[in-house]
Amino acid sequence: MSKALEGVKILDFTHVQSGPTCTQLLAWFGADVIKVERPGAGDITRGQLRDVPDADSLYFTMLNHNKRSITLDTKNPKGMEVLWEMVKICDVLVENFAPGVLDRMGLTWKKLHEVNPRLIVASVKGFGPGPYEDCKVYENVAQCAGGSASTTGFREGPPLVTGAQIGDSGTGLHLALGIVTALYHRTHSGLGQKVDCAMQDGVLNLCRVKLRDQQRLAHGPLSEFSQFGEGVPFGEAVPRAGNDSGGGQPGRILKCKGWETDPNAYIYFITQAPVWEAICDVIGEQGWKTDPGYATPPARLPRLNEIFGRIEQWTMTMTKFEAMDLLNQYDIPCGPILSMKEIAEEKSLRETGTVVEVDHPKRGKYLSVGNPIKLSNSPTDVKRSPLLGEHTEEVLRDVLKFDENRIAAITESGATGARPRVAAE
Ligand code: COA
């Protein structure tokens, strides 16, 4: 079976999380992703949050599967010479340096396009054109600037960032879509183009419903928010909604048996309108089926606290898994709050390849998140991340087709750094 992106060569100039998320996906789909790293140091995440001495961190390994690594000092003329050769033969250059870095390297869009008109140049930056375009940005800055933090958390508390890496990994996903779209366009136009994703834009795209609510506010209170039923007036901007569900089907996180000691003994419960009668039967409030104060969705909105309080009395009588089993018999939408430990141990996620065990020569076995996008004719085979510069020689010889003399001159110049020691696998 061939891989969907087989034959596509990526000059992967990414680091940290946003760019590597994108190129890892492309690698999983079969692209040949050649990661260019600074000799001796590499992607800074190799050494960040290290848990095993001298081994690449999980931060790095979990974002750089299925790639090759070549070390090149782009501040060395020979290093730049090699880079330009890579530009000539690659389909896509992906980067997420700070604004201006690529231009300082001499890799302007104009010059890149001249040298290889088919090259797609894909970039992540913190902000698009505007007052903040020159700023360096990390995950949480993007969450704050993209509307996520102001709408996450409880009304009475401060803005909150979320554990999901919507700024970094979210933007990497957006970029990957931009790249495959540009690759498709190139099949008609024959030309590459620039693909730009700003992290602020990516987060805002994921917060689309909150911009929706901002405009609804002009026409009255947001009746699905708990604060509506509590009689708390709305201000000028969309407030934080706690665990209220944003859509038309009110939901809430409710305690289950064991919540006093287990921080994750909770279930998300949705009072979906079509199954309201089943909910009444399950919790033993048959009267709510016909009582005009409870029977219709609009009637229920002002009393969500009371209704969820009653449902919680019921959920607290069983574990989140028992509640899940029972509620699913009635098609009542709900979901247990799963801890990372529970997710790591979940059999079905292992079976689908969403959670995979990978072996690494320096750290041994570790768990990773596999490809969440499943293609029926292009299955993903997750391979360990490369050691720093592990494929330098291989790429110079087999990909760039340099002869021994040229490779020797490059090595001699120090452009590739010292040859890495590869542990026996
Ligand atoms: N050889 C030699 N030098 C190299 C190199 C190589 N192979 N690769 C990179 N460099 C140099 C660059 O030329 C640059 O030097 P310069 O400033 O002298 O031109 C330098 O490394 C630093 O790059 P920079 O991107 O500024 O790194 P940083 O660690 O200071 O900033 C970020 C990190 C993430 C804040 C920044 O890259 C950024 O804002 N990126 C865009 C947004 C983004 O993706 N953020 C999320 C990250 S998960």
TrEMBL record:
Gene Ontology molecular function terms on file: formyl-CoA transferase activity
Name recorded for this polypeptide: Formyl-CoA:oxalate CoA-transferase
Active site as annotated: D168 (nucleophile)
Catalysis performed (reactions): formyl-CoA + oxalate = oxalyl-CoA + formate
Primary enzyme class: transferase
Annotated EC: 2.8.3.16
Keywords, sorted A to Z: Transferase
Pfam families linked: CoA_transf_3
UniProt record similarity statement: Belongs to the CoA-transferase III family. Frc subfamily.
Keyword Zinc-finger applies: no
Residues at which CoA binds: 17-18, 38, 72-75, 96-98, 104, 136-139
The protein's role, per its UniProt record: Involved in the catabolism of oxalate and in the adapatation to low pH via the induction of the oxalate-dependent acid tolerance response (ATR). Catalyzes the transfer of the CoA moiety from formyl-CoA to oxalate.
Species assigned in the record: Phreatobacter stygius
Summary of subunit composition and partner proteins: Homodimer.
Gene3D superfamilies in alphabetical order: Crotonobetainyl-coa:carnitine coa-transferase, domain 1, formyl-coa transferase, domain 3
Residues that hold substrate according to the record: G247, G248, Q249
Record carries keyword Transferase: yes
Coiled-coil segments: none
